[in-house]
Design goal:
Elements lengths: L2 H20 L2 E3 L5 E3 L17 H25 L5 H23 L17 H14 L3 H24 L4 H27 L11 H8 L16
Antiparallel strand pairs: 1-2
Helix pairs in contact: 1-6, 2-3, 2-4, 2-5, 3-6, 4-5, 5-6
Pfam families: DUF2202
Keywords: Signal
Protein name: DUF2202 domain-containing protein
């Protein structure tokens, strides 16, 4: 088994275990079912090779986008009594660790990546964080809409980045993050329906959005007993 094959299997094991945790139903404060995802220790493996400039840029961006989701949910979870924010913010930690490990395995020093809550390297993400927190703190309905926006943005951005790499390990990690985001989108959508929150997708088409939220909770890995791929 090559080191690259070992890395892919290790990442799949970590994320598959996390997916099993996501599948456990958890009741929100209003009796609306939400999903649970638990953090796992990051996998440590050897350097795999070289990233193109585009691949490196994409991975660094996605680390910050996942941090954006985590930090916004932590902030909103401190204001609104929905356990969903705690559950999904924990899930984002797994996503961040998965991307960071991927960068490490390509020899990228991730120590310079920001880890201070609410602080980001990319000015666009910094501005978006401030905007989403301000909006989400107005009302619980606004907070739910913010969650929908973050998750559909994540799904759309990952789709773009999957098309921009030919590396199987990167694609697989991106696909697992997408699976998590689809599950999170469904959780926020259930809360939106329960509270009569109207939402118009901004990053996905209406059909893409509807197809996801109408789908079943996903688990597993590509090609092995999972839905959605």
């Amino acid at each position: 088994m090559t080191s690259k094959q070992f890395f892919v299997l290790a990442i799949l094991f970590m994320l598959s275990w996390g997916s099993l945790c996501w599948a456990q139903p958890d009741e929100g404060k209003e009796g609306v079912s939400v999903t649970t995802e638990q953090s796992n220790e990051p996998v440590q493996t050897k350097t795999l090779g070289q990233l193109s400039e585009q691949e490196l840029e994409d991975l660094l961006w996605m680390v910050e986008e996942e941090r954006l989701a985590h930090d916004v949910y932590v902030k909103l979870g401190s204001k609104w009594p929905l356990r969903m924010y705690d559950n999904i913010s924990s899930a984002e930690k797994v996503h961040i660790a998965s991307l960071s490990n991927l960068l490490k395995n390509y020899g990228v020093d991730v120590s310079s990546l920001g880890n201070q809550s609410g602080m980001f390297t990319h000015s666009e993400i910094q501005g978006l964080y401030s905007e989403l927190v301000e909006r989400g703190e107005k009302t619980l309905e606004d907070a739910i809409a913010v969650g929908l926006l973050i998750e559909e943005m994540d799904i759309a951005d990952l789709s773009k980045r999957i098309k921009r790499t030919d590396k199987k390990d990167i694609k697989q990690v991106y696909q697992f993050l997408q699976m998590g985001s689809r599950n999170h989108l469904r959780a926020f959508s259930r809360q939106a329906a329960f509270r009569n929150v109207e939402y118009v997708p901004q990053h996905l088409s209406q059909k893409e959005f509807d197809d996801i939220v109408r789908g079943s909770h996903e688990r597993g890995r590509p090609g092995r007993g999972r839905r959605g791929f």
